[in-house]
């Protein structure tokens, strides 16, 4: 049965220690925590590298993914990642599986199983984000879980791309998998892969390859942790994982105590519902006292009939992204680290809609936390000289494409057959997505070509890799030179690209469909009242003669959007 919102929010909090974990804690010797927690970090780094090398999509190859290690109950203990957001969502379906399947004789949790899911109501963001979850046993005892997750550009919804701004209910958003047992006895069930391809026919090859990559990542982590358990014992592993959670929570509470007690507020706006003009807001009031913070979103706009809604745990995940990037930058990626922060999210709002609401645009909604929280936490942290350097710069990247373009369409290519005759989906624009400029900081200009605000450790994607998979040729892929700003410090500039259809006959090219920006009024503001960034326009030129000019050796080929405008 589908979990309630309260149950999922409870999943985000650390579970009480088990008897096995407490017994394992007693066996830890001085130095064991320091040595073997770092050993786990190195194992996770290896598994992330394996996942990234095996995967096929722009998202995987650029590192917009996570590999996580969990306790036997499901709590996230440590991770190697490009995106922090799944450090919250990966544990939710594991806890649901343990609650509903572990003792169920018709299903069970056994060695060699891999579960797979992407249904947001079970603790994820939206259908595009798919997770592989694998139990780790030692001598017949469940000692841990492994998780891998990343975005998928296609879900089989009513338009290509998975992120469908004008969807009105979940039934228009494509494949939505409750936790299913994708593999048993270390073998993937081919019939379930075929089912996924049937649901996601626009990008079947992409789905199969990245699904196998997720499974490869969790299996490598399973193997390495079993090897460590053979050396140190399964009870040692369980005690070590609990120790990491305890130390992480202690570190977070000690950090919060240093910040100013008080009540802090901020508000951001969005100027569109799907592709329709409108206005709505998210309000956050933070109550900070001693070692505890409550983020209260009372006053937020009601649920709407587009896909610009998200569930409460999405806001918790984007709060985690903000905290791990700044206030908790040196603490473990662990459910214990986020334990001191609670959330009040009123039901019926855009951030707590009905279970059957459309939520495929949940990330751009959750990302508004990266506008809300910098000013809130700047007030808490500014008086501490040690913390001042960790104050976040708002990330005002312009995201949110309306329903006609969906979530694909990166580099002007939406969906169709590529130059190899394979159905593919647009890559989502990995270069511009992952090279957004950072907002102005308290003591300097913002960093140029800095980050994607949902995946702060992901890299700008390789243009040549994109050209292999999609019928596109890059005219340019580079960095802007400057930005304007009336304040003392300016925000950082971003990367940008220009592409042309290439390698397929004109009759096989997919129809172009202009995206509709929903952010006509820009959200966010600077730390000291500075302006948000400009809203750059995407340019689409039909029936261009650019390839003919290049074939003739024309020297005046456009190399920037400004030159195209001219």
Task: Please give a structural write-up.
By secondary structure, this protein is an alpha+beta fold. The chain has a domain at 21-252. 32% of the residues lie in helices and 17% in strands. It has helices at residues 5-11, 19-27, 32-54, 58-61, 86-89, 91-100, 190-199, 204-232, 234-257, 312-325, 362-366, 369-381, 385-388, 430-434, 463-469, 546-551, 561-565, and strands at residues 65-71, 76-81, 114-117, 129-138, 141-151, 180-184, 187-188, 262-270, 280-289, 292-296, 341-344, 415-417, 423-425, 472-479, 495-501. The strands form 4 sheets. Strands 2-1-5-4-3-6-7 form a 7-stranded antiparallel β-sheet, sandwiched between helices. β9 (280-289) and β10 (292-296) form a beta hairpin. α10 (312-325) crosses α12 (369-381). It is globular and about 75 Å long. The relative contact order is 0.13. The model is unreliable at 398-410 and 511-518 (pLDDT under 50).
Assembly classification: single chain
Q: Give the overall shape, derived from the CA principal axes.
A: globular
DSSP E strands, number: 15
For the largest beta-sheet, the strand count, sense and barrel status come to: 7 strands, antiparallel
Class from secondary-structure proportions: alpha+beta
Helix content class:
25-40%
Low-pLDDT parts are 398-410, 511-518
How large is the radius of gyration?
23 Å
With strands numbered from the N-terminus, the spatial order across the biggest sheet is 2-1-5-4-3-6-7
- Strand portion, in percent? 15-25%
Distance between the termini: 58 Å
**Arithmetic mean of pLDDT:** 87
Number of helices: 17
């Amino acid at each position: 049965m589908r979990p309630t919102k309260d149950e999922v929010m409870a999943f985000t909090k650390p579970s009480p220690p088990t008897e096995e974990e407490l017994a394992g804690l007693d066996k830890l010797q001085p130095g064991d925590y320091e040595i073997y927690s770092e050993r786990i970090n190195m194992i996770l780094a290896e598994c992330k590298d394996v996942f990234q090398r095996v995967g096929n999509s722009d998202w995987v190859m650029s590192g917009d993914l996570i590999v996580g290690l969990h306790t036997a109950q499901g709590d996230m203990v440590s991770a190697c990642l490009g995106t922090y957001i799944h450090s919250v969502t990966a544990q939710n379906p594991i806890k649901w599986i343990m609650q509903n399947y572990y003792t169920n004789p018709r299903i069970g949790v056994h060695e060699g199983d891999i579960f797979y899911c992407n249904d947001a109501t079970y603790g994820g963001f939206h259908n595009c984000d798919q997770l592989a979850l694998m139990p780790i046993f030692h001598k017949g005892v469940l000692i841990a879980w492994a998780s891998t997750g990343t975005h998928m550009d296609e879900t089989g919804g009513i338009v290509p791309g998975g992120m469908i701004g004008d969807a009105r209910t979940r039934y228009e958003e494509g494949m939505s998998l409750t936790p299913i047992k994708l593999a048993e006895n270390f073998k993937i069930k081919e019939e379930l892969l075929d089912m996924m391809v049937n649901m996601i026919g626009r990008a079947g090859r992409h789905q199969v390859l990245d699904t196998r990559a997720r499974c490869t990542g969790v299996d490598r982590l399973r193997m390495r942790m079993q090897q460590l358990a053979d050396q140190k014992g399964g009870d040692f592993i369980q005690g070590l994982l609990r120790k990491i959670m305890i130390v992480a929570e202690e570190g977070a509470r000690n950090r919060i105590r240093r910040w100013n007690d008080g009540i802090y507020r901020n508000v951001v706006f969005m100027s569109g519902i799907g592709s329709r003009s409108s206005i709505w807001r998210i309000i956050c009031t933070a109550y900070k006292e001693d070692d505890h913070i409550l983020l209260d979103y009372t006053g937020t706009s009601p649920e709407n009939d587009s896909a610009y809604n998200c569930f409460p745990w999405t806001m918790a995940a984007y709060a985690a992204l903000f905290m791990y990037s700044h206030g908790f930058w040196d603490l473990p990626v662990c459910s214990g680290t986020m334990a001191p922060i609670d959330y009040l999210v009123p039901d019926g709002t855009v951030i707590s809609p009905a279970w059957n609401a459309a939520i495929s645009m949940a990330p751009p909604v959750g990302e508004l936390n990266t506008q809300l929280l910098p000013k809130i936490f700047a007030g808490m942290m500014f008086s501490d000289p040690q913390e001042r350097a960790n104050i976040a710069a708002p990330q005002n990247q312009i995201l949110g494409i309306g329903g006609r373009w969906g979530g694909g369409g990166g580099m002007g290519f939406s969906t169709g057959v590529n130059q190899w005759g394979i159905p593919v989906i647009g890559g989502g624009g990995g270069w511009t997505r992952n090279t957004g400029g950072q907002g102005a900081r308290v003591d300097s200009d913002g960093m140029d070509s800095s980050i994607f605000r949902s995946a702060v450790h992901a890299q700008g994607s390789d243009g040549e890799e994109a050209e292999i998979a999609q019928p596109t040729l890059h005219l340019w892929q580079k960095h802007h030179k400057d930005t304007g700003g009336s304040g003392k410090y300016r925000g950082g500039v971003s990367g940008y690209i220009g592409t042309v259809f290439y390698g397929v006959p004109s009759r096989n090219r997919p129809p172009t469909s202009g995206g509709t920006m929903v952010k006509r009024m820009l959200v966010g503001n600077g730390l000291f009242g500075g302006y948000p960034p400009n809203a750059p326009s995407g340019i689409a030129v039909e029936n261009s003669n650019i390839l003919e000019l290049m074939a003739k050796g024309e020297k005046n080929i456009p190399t920037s959007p400004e030159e195209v405008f001219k």
